[in-house]
Every structure is written in C-alpha cells, then in structure tokens.
C-alpha cells in the first residue's frame, strides 16, 4: 500500500528533532512525485542519494516552482511566455530595495495605469514616450531611477523580441546550456538588472534547474545551517579549494556564519545539474521562524519574480 504524504511528513519531523530515523527514497509517496514535473523527481532522487538528511525538507511541502502546469490551458505561446518574462523582470525592478508590502502596493498602483494588468513591453515602451505618462509612473510610487530601469527593460524586450524567444525557449538541446549567456545579456542590456536578479529570473522566469546564487543572504544562511553538522564535508570542501572567493554578505547576528563563496559553490556543485533544487532546500533551511512562513515567502517569490 502506498503511504500517505501526511504519514511520511509526520515521520520526517523526527529528523528535525534530532531522530536519526531516515526516510528512504522508495518510501516517498507517488502522489508527491506526481504533483511535480519529472525533472524535479529526478533532482530529488539525485540529491537524496547524495544526502538523505534533506528528505524532511523536501517533504514538508510541495515546491510551487516545480509543480505541473494545468494541461487544461494548453502550452503557452512564445509570445505569452516572453510577456510573462517581461512581467517577472519588471516586478523585480519594482521590488528592488523595498519591503514586500511596499512593492506590492506600488505594483498595484502602477498596474492601475494599465487597467489593472502589467503592461505589454511594446505598450510600455510607447507609453513612456509621453512625458505626462512618465509623471504618472512616478506618482504610482516608482523612483526616477526605477522609471529609467523600466524604460530600459521595455526597450530591451521590444528591440530584441525574436532573439530573446530563441535564446529563452529554443536552445539547441534544451539542457539549460545557455544560462550564462542569458544572464550576461540581461546584465549588459538592461539598466538596473544585476547578476542576482538575472539568476532569480533564470529560476522563476525560465524554470532553469541548475542555477545557484551564493550571493543571496537566504542561501548563505541556509548553507550555514546545512553545513553546521557536517564537519567532514566541510573539511573536504576546505581541503579541495583551489582559490578563495570571499562573500560580500555582511550581517550583524552571530547565530550563523557566512562561508566563502567558493566553499558554497563547491558544495552546490555536488548536486549539479540540479543546483536550483538544492538552492530551494537551503532557502527552506534558512527560515528564522516556522518553516510554513518560509514556504509562504518561497511561493511569493515564485509568483512575483
């Protein structure tokens, strides 16, 4: 008889509490696998064969990013996917360096200028040629700098439409082999888009499965907690390093340690080509409160950026 997901999750809580009892890969419920895309199931098996202690982090809740699409709506067109990509990056610009609640408020006011919808990139490019419209964008809560960034983004998508479709959705072998190309193109082509935002877009906008961002505070905090009870692994990572890449993350709390970037990257490479999934596990481990709250934030990230 197949085990219920609730039964396995209840059992897995013993791992959090310090129980050494582990759940085997073959005991993971089929309904949990069925709710996710096949690539996620492959990633889960690959990661758990390397480190089965992460099983409770997997089973605590579904991963919104890797859930199967509703087939009733059909496969979106390249035009629809590119517009979604533009909306993701535009939302990221709106939310830069402000709280989630403030970003949500500004986004709603900005979208109100376009009948409650995020504008099409060509529509926004044309809209911003009129000075009064730019003023309205400022009045919605966008800073002058972010207005400039939004214009740069709209021009980038409008002027490179076909090239972006090919680069995003029609790589030669569909194995995410052009992640660096996409990231570098975004950083060079759009004002206000840096490496972190580009990586997050690869994850949530293009569903790329081998992305890792050691510069992210949540990833760094999660890694600190992940490695804290693995002295042998840490020694292996330290002994094998070829060069030192210091982290630029600064924090005032002393309940977790910021590890060097090269150490985090070497650890993540153990889980390639599924580093995105490992990164999501670290985010879950990074939560300062209840895991349920961390998962809520995770889902907000997937649905906004």
UniProtKB/TrEMBL annotation:
Could you tell me which species this protein originates from? Answer: Maudiozyma saulgeensis
- A Gene Ontology molecular-function term? DNA-7-methylguanine glycosylase activity
Keyword vocabulary terms for this entry: DNA damage, DNA repair
Put simply, this protein is called Similar to Saccharomyces cerevisiae YER142C MAG1 3-methyl-adenine DNA glycosylase involved in protecting DNA against alkylating agents
Please list the residue ranges annotated as the HhH-GPD domain: 94-254
Q: Name one GO cellular component term.
A: nucleus
UniProt keyword Hydrolase, yes or no:
no
So what family is this one in?
Belongs to the alkylbase DNA glycosidase AlkA family.
User: A GO term (biological process) for this protein?
Assistant: DNA alkylation repair
Q: Which SUPFAM superfamilies match?
A: DNA-glycosylase
Q: Give yes or no: UniProt keyword DNA damage.
A: yes
| Pfam families reported for this sequence | HhH-GPD (PF00730)
């Amino acid at each position: 008889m197949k085990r219920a997901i609730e039964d396995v999750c209840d059992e897995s809580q013993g791992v959090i509490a310090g129980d050494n009892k582990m759940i085997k890969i073959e005991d993971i419920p089929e309904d949990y696998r069925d709710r996710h895309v096949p690539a996620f199931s492959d990633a889960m098996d690959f990661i758990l064969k390397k480190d089965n202690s992460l099983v409770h982090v997997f089973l605590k809740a579904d991963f919104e990013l890797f859930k199967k699409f509703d087939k009733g709506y059909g496969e979106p067109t390249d035009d629809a996917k590119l517009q979604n990509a533009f909306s993701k990056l535009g939302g990221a610009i709106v939310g830069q360096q402000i709280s989630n609640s403030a970003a949500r408020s500004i986004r709603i006011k900005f979208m109100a200028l376009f009948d409650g919808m995020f504008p099409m990139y060509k529509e926004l490019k044309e809209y911003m040629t009129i000075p009064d419209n730019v003023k309205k964008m400022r009045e919605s809560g966008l800073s002058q700098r972010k207005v400039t960034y939004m214009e740069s983004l709209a021009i980038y998508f409008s002027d490179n439409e076909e090239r972006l479709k090919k680069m995003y959705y029609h790589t030669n072998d569909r194995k995410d082999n052009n992640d660096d190309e996409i990231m570098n193109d975004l950083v060079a082509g759009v004002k206000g888009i840096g490496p972190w935002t580009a990586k997050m877009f690869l994850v949530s906008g293009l569903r790329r499965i081998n992305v890792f961002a050691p510069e992210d505070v949540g990833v760094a905090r999660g890694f600190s907690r992940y490695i804290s009870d693995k002295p042998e692994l840490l020694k292996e990572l330290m002994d094998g390093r070829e060069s030192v890449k210091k982290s630029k993350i600064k924090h005032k709390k002393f309940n977790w340690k910021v590890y060097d970037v090269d150490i985090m990257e070497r650890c993540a490479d153990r889980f390639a080509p599924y580093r995105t999934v490992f990164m999501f596990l670290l985010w879950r481990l990074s939560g300062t409160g209840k895991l349920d709250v961390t998962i809520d934030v995770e889902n907000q990230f997937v649905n906004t950026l």
